[in-house]
């Protein structure tokens, strides 16, 4: 059963407790309703993808109670500080480099070294974030392929029974998604138009270039040069899929009882649970990438993951990682 909370202090505290326990809670923001999970809990973030029925992992926006809290996880530059001062709380998402001590699960950022952060303006969203005291990863609260919800009733129609609770924050005021601005490179880039107009941004931080959303960027690069991926979307080491044996120069990404003979093993899920494996996938790829070279291992052998539940999204990511490289 999905609980429906109104905005009393008690109910917001109950919603925060559910989030802290790793449950999914949808809540209204000024843009659309978000499907929230504790961003520091990889298993909770994996549950977002499962509830939405998304066949791939895309980077999610992390919501914070304040700019100060956000900039503890990502490194702000001058443009970021100016944009935050002018538009936060509000419908602006900033993409910035993760700090080394960033608490957010790698899965929330789809393994990227940048993270999308935002401070929402809706008073109930702000209250919920303050009550939790941790960032909340939240894409729009709809099943994959359906339109973004702007009322609690829309969320219940799509996700009722699949998530712990919905905070009824009333109809969304903005009704379109946040503007996504990439400030991680040399020039500011607009990745998605949204609630803050680009003219308003330019008045504060100067010229903003047109950018390409990360999903198109990945697809486009694959078209231009098959297999060449955006850096950090894939491990540096080549990946071999559906391994049934491990070669002498391979590290193993295990799913279920590990193949014998591997010198280095990262276990995604001992019991063969795709949701647990999804939560650990990016951590595992980063870890193997970092550890393998010193042991003279030059490839990652990935055991088969079934195409059920989050297994589809895991296989999508591993297939990208296994595609032949341009270099
Ligand atoms: P949603 O959470 O559905 O509103 O969508 C968030 C969107 O923000 C993603 O689909 C990406 O296009 C973009 N985004 C999130 N994180 C990043 C990132 N680290 N780099 C580039 N784009 C991002
Ligand atoms: Mg969406």
Defining traits:
single chain; about 325 residues; alpha/beta; DHBP synthase; Rossmann fold; 2 domains; eleven-stranded mixed sheet; four-stranded parallel sheet; 10 helices; about 15% strand; globular; binds adenosine monophosphate; binds magnesium ion
Order of helices and strands: EHEEHEHHEEHEHEEEHEHEEEHEH
Secondary structural class: alpha/beta
In which range does the helix fraction lie? 25-40%
Give the percentage of residues in beta strands. 15-25%
Unreliable parts = 223-232
Put simply, the count of helices is: 10
Tell me the overall shape. globular
Classified in CATH, the superfamily of the largest domain is DHBP synthase
Distance between the termini: 51 Å
Bound molecules: adenosine monophosphate, magnesium ion
Word description of this protein:
There is one protein chain. It is built from ten helices and 15 strands. It is α/β, with parallel strands linked by helices and 327 residues long. It folds into two domains: 3-210, DHBP synthase (Alpha-Beta Complex), CATH 3.90.870; 239-322, 3-Layer(aba) Sandwich (Rossmann fold). The strands form two sheets. An eleven-stranded mixed beta sheet has the order 1-8-2-3-7-4-6-5-9-10-11, sandwiched between helices. Strands 12-15-13-14 form a four-stranded parallel beta sheet. A hairpin with a 6-residue loop joins strand 9 (179-182) and strand 10 (189-192). Helix 1 crosses helix 5 (123-132) and helix 2 (42-52) crosses helix 9. The N and C termini lie far apart (51 Å). It binds adenosine monophosphate (AMP) and magnesium ion. Adenosine monophosphate is lined by residues 58-61, 95, 109, 112, 114-116, 139-140, 177, 180, 182, 191-192, 213-215. The site of adenosine monophosphate has 20 residues, from strand 6, strand 9, strand 10 and helix 8.
